[in-house]
Design goal:
Mean pLDDT of chain A: 97
CATH class of the largest domain in chain A: Alpha Beta
Helix content of chain A: 40-55%
Oligomer: homohexamer
Number of strands of chain A: 8
CATH topology of the largest domain in chain A: Rossmann fold
Order of helices and strands of chain A: EHEHHEHEHEHEHEHHEHH
Number of domains of chain A: 2
Largest sheet of chain A: 4 strands, parallel
Strand order of the largest sheet of chain A: 2-1-3-4
Chain lengths: 249, 249, 249, 249, 249, 249
């Protein structure tokens, strides 16, 4: 009976879309007894298409993590850049999952290398930064963009699918990628992977699905992030200042 | 209703012990509808404590994989050296899971580095070879041995637990490991991790559990190894010679 | 006649201490016609001793960068973790300097490897993340801590100097470090390097000095960050939302 | 008066062809007092064109090594994938040579990087695995295939030579390779290198020749594999089970 | 009042051209009180376009360094291959600057990667050797040549500028370079960077300017190379033989 | 009937000692028809114990290579730092062997890693530079020194043997080295390896022997360095200036 928070790191998602994603996220669960709730941060960018917006989402994410960890058993940071992942893990006494970190490692189980296909060129440098942080740069064949802004994708699902298929095929044929990681949660919740997987002929990983599965796996194994890499913070200091009301754990 | 084969790569396990492991493996399942069957190879070493024995297990593993893939939905190679993993993936049209590859990537989700604690020094070079193969050498803080032969461990479970705790603590304190991966399936099925996890204070990964969970995750996501890295073999040639009766897929 | 902003990323510094640092920073200038102004963010942590606090400083930093870039010619992010560096560079049309990135590269000019000596163990994982991001992990012999909280250091300058000398010597003798980078701006502005450099016998880099010099060097060379790595953002989108009033450049 | 075993790891070679290769191998010797004998395994694949076949050759190779080490002074594993190399070295008290490992290191003495030109795409992933195992991935400019099955090559020696020259030239011109390593022992014993070396203008290494020369060099220097990397096995345990009759050394 | 020696490592530069470069180098200074003197070695190649010529310049450079370090405060080795840099640093008690090492690290402050654009293909392998030596190979997107001999460039400044712009643009567009490092001091003193920087749209680093600025920065910070990496030599032994008259320091 | 030049890069060796080494070098030959001649440079250091001396030997080496390549079939640079190796290869139309490069690659054939044991700490940084240049840094467990000056060793062969054994054992036990490379040609020609190899229990490589064997192997295989990495120089330009009389090839 684990409760998982899928934390939307921006303020641009309508409540309806949040509900829709919540329904989908629950449909990704392996165990019926588990549940996923979608909540958005109180402050943050409309969408994340740049390192700037990724960075500006971190404050809102951490405030939510500080407060929500008493109400949930695990937290998924709902952005394909894993913003604030390391800080959230330090702050949190429950497992925190980064969809892209989880997807990258899953991709490594399927083949020698992977390509990430994201939305816009402007976010590609941030993805390479994550790859270096995770020590997986050498497993990444390429990072490619479909050239759709996040907020435009829902208007043209067929166009998104075609662009994703095109970039994925070029990744396999030209860059030697053994698999594809979808690089945007809005793309992920369009379930575009299901439209193209038959045609592609190489595994494609949906980070929304991968992160829900990874959360369940960690919970069922009783595992969470290590205090060696994510040391326990000084809760008292934090509670007095940037996270008023934060209690020691 | 997925059926998972846990393939024992040696001939030294009594049928009783196989049954006991089958019971445990089924208890690791997340989904009740799934099941794990334990089968052993027809030929192979008694136990795997050297690169030689690991290598001598591969023939038996592949023969079993060739034949069993029609009866199962996924195969776990039941050895903490993942013997024959790449070849089994080429040969198989269903997902093949290496417990150690899966555990290493899981460990990466929990902290910056991990230590593998295995049985004997004689198998350590083989583990480093796996780490290089998986591109994870830089994430491994150390490989340590508890100095118990595989076939002796069951006689002294407390001694094994103490030795594992000792090596794990030294790994964290001296080598900077953020987490521990147990490096032997016989150790894993003794559930030694459960005895020491409270005392250790760093995550410890049981490869038996991790491989069952990973098999379920891949099955529920509809993912399997990529034909880019594990190319489809010439089934006809193989069927005429080393795998008599093998059918094209 | 370049104006450099030294941006304090937290709110724990008294106005007096800011003034004192401003005086020192101006004394580090090579060219008299240049000037350094110290300003603090409007919101943020008291001090930065964890990945959490580093992350929580980024929002305040970027808001200040968005607004201040019209009033200055270059910006130094005044924290030895370079918080928000990549995002600030994207956002800014003037050079942005990270004291630690600048110090690391300076250290590389002086010897084969360096050790960073910081304040507390709790910030060490964040420093390794920076080293990986900058592609300099292999040049870093070790990261060590003197075990002084940021806000306590000023009470015991002699103790800080002794601890820095002790850790620096061990870095050279035991870790093979060719040079030392001081890993805290509060330590840097105590000018502890000047107290120990004679005794140490290996170069020690003060990031406050290094960042001022690097800012001047970039300005005099007419160089700033590349739009290839730090792409020009969608100023209009940013101006409508997270940075009200931001103008296109 | 050293006797070298060239061990054919498959069962597809006619006795005539074995004799022909034995003659050639002896012609590669530097010292007249030495000799090379060609023997084939008792069981194994017809030819090795996939990771599967490479893996299925290991059992037969090790059985032969276990038995033959009393009759020879050094053993060459006669396949350009070095199947079972590490295990054979553990098992053997005499030097074991992998033709590709030897050729790769020889290529490193001639230039900054090399390309391996093998037979079929299906074996390329196995070669990259060897490169990672040997720590030479960064020295390999590319792995290319001439698209000839092993058992077809002898029918069209001119075609093989043309294809090898074409791929080698593209390797030099497009991939920046400084030298070429022929990636198949059947190709090697066709002496195709001698046909194209004048035209190529870059060094080309024949692994059959390289392995014979390396065997002689090790023997004349009194060197063999280190027990640090290839630990002495438990001969008694092995002798009781997978290698009946194996004696301690 | 620091005096900097810009040491020309060849004998092919007219006294007029030396004077012209001295004037330019002084114009690059940040501090008026400092000065740069240009001196050439007594023996050496006419120009440096190969590893051979680079190597043949080292003897003359070191003899000059041995003698000149009493007359100057810092030495710049005036060649974009940094010939003899490590040896000169061992020999010298004052800072020694390699223009290319300094430029590479400066380039790292501006973006994720850089391309070096040099004169002829024949010097490219030497540049990759420097990159490996400095541990920056992974930051280099490519090394390209404009195909102008050093001694021909001055005859066609427009052609040089066009070729540099062409190669730089291809570096950015095709190789992903975030910045450009000019790879020849004769090119640098033609100030070609100033002609193309507006058109290029990515930072371009002039190693002549960068080395003068770096020399000043080191001097003003009181920093020089570490004796850990560049150990103090046995001055007595050197003074008796290869550097007659060399005094201990 | 190949003639090999063993080129002594310094001027400190008596003619008697040169003759003694010539005798030994000829005894290392595998083929009686081959011969080794020892010649010393005309100018250079007495012995090579620092980066400075290594650098000061290069001019003399190249002048000798330029002239001697018509009289010999291969050249061994007689110093365990391989001074001028890349330049000599560019300059030479016959194979040039670096004893240490050859020894490092030979060591890689014997185990996962090696330690180099050299004479003095002052030369250790130069050795790491070579390791980086050859792309073998990751294979080197450590570089250690026996603390004997080159010119003192012959006075105390027992002391040298004891020190080499002590450092070698510590390398194996503490650093994990699988093999040892002797890091000085004077040590090599004392044949100290033969005194300690029985006691050490790990392979030890004598670079004098290794380089003679490698020279013979290259000659018998008809291989030499690639013009891709060591481009053909402009012989005319070189002949007019630094190598008077040099002819095109």
């Amino acid at each position: 009976m684990a409760k998982i928070l899928y934390l939307v790191p921006g303020v641009g998602l309508s409540r309806d879309e949040q509900k829709r994603r919540e329904g989908l996220a629950n449909s990704f669960l392996t165990q019926e007894k588990n549940s996923v709730a979608v909540e958005a941060v109180d402050e943050g960018p409309i969408s994340i298409e740049s390192t700037i917006e990724e960075a500006m989402s971190v404050g809102g994410i951490l405030k939510k993590v500080a407060e929500a960890q008493d109400r949930y058993d695990a937290i998924i940071i709902g952005c394909a850049g894993d913003p604030g992942l390391a800080a959230a893990r330090e702050l949190s006494s429950i497992p925190v999952i980064g969809p892209i970190e989880a997807s990258f490692h899953l991709a490594c189980l399927l083949g020698e290398s992977f390509t990430m296909v994201t939305v816009l060129d402007s976010i590609i440098p941030a993805i390479w930064r994550s790859l270096r942080d995770y020590g997986l740069e050498h497993k990444c064949a390429s990072v490619r963009a479909i050239d759709f802004p996040v907020l435009e994708m829902h208007k043209d699902p067929e166009g998104v699918a075609r662009a994703l298929l095109r970039e994925s095929r070029e990744a396999v044929d030209d860059d030697g990628a053994a698999g594809i990681v979808m690089g945007c949660m809005s793309m992920a919740f369009m379930l575009v992977d299901e439209k193209i997987r038959m045609e592609l002929g190489a595994p494609i990983i949906n980070p929304a699905k991968a992160s829900v599965k990874t959360a369940e796996m960690l919970l069922s194994l009783g595992l969470k992030q290590s205090r060696v890499t994510y040391p326990e913070p000084d809760y008292k200091k934090l509670g007095l200042t940037i996270f008023p009301g934060l209690k020691a754990r």
